[in-house]
Amino acid sequence: MHPAKRGSGAGGHHARVGRTTGAGGHNVRVIPASALPLVDRHTHLEGALDPAWVRREAERRGLALPGPLEALWGGGAALFEGFIEAFLFGASLLDSREAVRQAALAVARRTLAAGGSGVDLWVSPHFLVVHRAQLSLTDFWQGLDEGLSEARALGLRSCVVVDAVNHFGPRHGHAVLDLVLPELPAFVKGFSTGGLEGCPFRDWAPVFDRARAAGLRLAAHAGENGPGSNVREAVLEAGVERIVHGIRADDGTLALLADRGIPVDVCPRSNAGLAADVRPHPLPRMLRAGVRCALGTDDPGVLPCDLATEREAARTLGLDEAEMSRLLRHGAEDAWCLA
Q1: Measured in whole angstroms, how far is the alpha carbon of residue 153 from the centre of its chain?
Q2: Cα–Cα distance, 116 to 148 (Å, whole number)
């Protein structure tokens, strides 16, 4: 049976909420403080595999684990190229419906164990189905549907964001949409770009416009491995409504994000490993500028972390209790999995 198509309900009970209009006309969902859930606002399916499962699968297939993956699991450092090698090794194991199901369950178990009850989950079907030709799109969606359905039974709310690769360019973005739009499952709520920020966001505008017309919400990794000006360009010229990372944004861009109420997903462990030149981490400055920051784990199966360790990392940056509470509130109110 194919996963439910768009238009069917996602299921699951959640707290009654209200809405208010924030800065810049942004429509903010307001959740009572006593009902605020802890949400992982950004994690990648392919980068969130259970290390024990990866070890078992590697042994079963007679594969050697990459040195950078072992190093990162042990808390060591690796160059960006090493991280990519580790990430791609895990992704190569997602070659069946059952493997995708296990990957979704790994996300659920990690999130729930850290006290979370929701996750916005990024996935890369074009990379797995077309670029690597590891499995069919039907098997990918069905495995994901089965895993997320089991996760929902355990108490985890979720939604999916389809990720394209910025540096592959807009033609690739259209190919991603060509692949997924004809039979898009109901649990897919958004479209995003990731990868290296090598292609101007203005060039991606037609792709984002097409995704928006199909009913998808729009996000972009920006200001992570590219200049902070990419954040402004993604918002003003590509029309995205959510930024992932944004840690290189200057004060003027932070003011823009605050004025427009643009949510920003920040991932301290990932940023420490993949954007080590950004010091000190700008999360306190971002929050104090009025930006609606929230926490995500990004690739916790490669760079070990969970929501609990990300919250502790945020606290060690000098956030006070009121700021920690704002992170929690933003994380829930702007989460697509709770919308």
Answers
A1: 22
A2: 15
Where would I find the H helices in the chain?
A: 51-61, 67-73, 80-92, 97-113, 125-126, 137-153, 170-180, 201-213, 229-236, 251-260, 268-274, 283-288, 307-316, 321-333
The C-alpha atoms of residue 211 and residue 230 are separated, in whole angstroms, by: 20
pTM of the prediction? 0.91
- pLDDT (mean) for 143-161: 98
Q: What is the pLDDT of residue 80?
A: 84
**Domain boundary assignment for the chain:** 35-338
Cα separation, 184 vs 322, in Å, equals 40
Report the chain's terminal Cα–Cα distance, integer Å. Answer: 26
Residues 169, 195: contact at Cβ < 8 Å?
no
User: Is the alpha carbon torsion for 208, 210, 212, 214 positive or negative?
Assistant: negative
Q: Of 263, 214, 273, nearest to 240 (Cα)?
A: 263
If you ran DSSP here, which 8-state letter would residue 337 be given? G
**Which range has the worst mean pLDDT, 64-78, 146-160, 244-258, 289-303?**
64-78
Residue 243: name the closest of 194, 206, 305, 186 by CA.
194
What is 35-338's CATH number, 1.10.1040.10, 3.90.226.10, 3.90.1680.10, 3.20.20.140?
A: 3.20.20.140
Placement of tokens 């097409």 in the chain: 210
- Does the pLDDT at position 118 exceed 90? yes
